[in-house]
Amino acid sequence: MRHLIRVTLGVAVAASLSACDKTGDKVEMDRKFQGVNVIDETNLNEVMLTVGDPNEAVDYFKRSSTSEPDRIDFQRGLASSLIRAKRFPEARIAWAQVVDHEEATNEDRVALADALIRTNDWDQAEKVLMSIPPTHESFKRYRLEAMIADGKKDWKKADAFYEVALGLTTKPASVMNNWGYSKLTRGDFREAERLFGEAINADQTMFTAKNNLVMARGAQGNYTLPVIPMTQPERAELLYTLGLAAVKRGDVQIGKGLLREAVETHPQHFEAAARALSALEDGA
């Protein structure tokens, strides 16, 4: 009987210890899985902010923000995704909410200023940037400062901001293009042409800079296409831009020839160029 009691107690103790071991293992396993979940969540956030469809990213971050409303990373993700989806009025509200968060940074305020500019609220964007200490220096901040100075036609300040922005980025094409357009609006066509050329050297896929370069050349009466990389459709588009520039300067016959060449160059029907050429030939 004593032997049976000992065996029973031994089994009970063993079972109890086994249960403790399993509980401990479960706790430890839960901890490990929590760590994995945090890593996976971080990676998923990064994926949604880059390669994911922006509207899908918006839905993802909306759900995440609703389930954990205090998480600023989800709020930032939502605001950034709304910008990527070109839903600027919503992005403006989202970035304002991020800035109200106790963990908000100066770069969040810069992002709010960017969203305000995208909704054409330049005055409020300037106020937001002015509220940021001058010690906070970033490429995005100075690019926005330059754009605001441009809008106020404060050319000296704009040039200074563009120059600083260039020194803070390894991808200068967009800054060169913006600065070139600033020069174009001032009538400094030669300097604009130089800046657009540098933008294309930095990013040969930037069609906006190519088109702006042709505009700057056309404004100077130079109606030859620059020697830059271009696809056949791009060549047709650039000829079209050059043709319109020629017409604007009063060189109508040259403009007609360029528009005709644009129509012939495009691999598909080029409706805009064909319509402009037809209007000129009809004496419009």
Automatic annotation (TrEMBL):
Keywords: Lipoprotein. Gene3D superfamilies: Tetratricopeptide repeat domain. The keyword Lipoprotein applies. It comes from the Bacteria. Pfam families: TPR_16 (PF13432). InterPro entries: TPR-like_helical_dom_sf (IPR011990). This is Lipoprotein, putative.
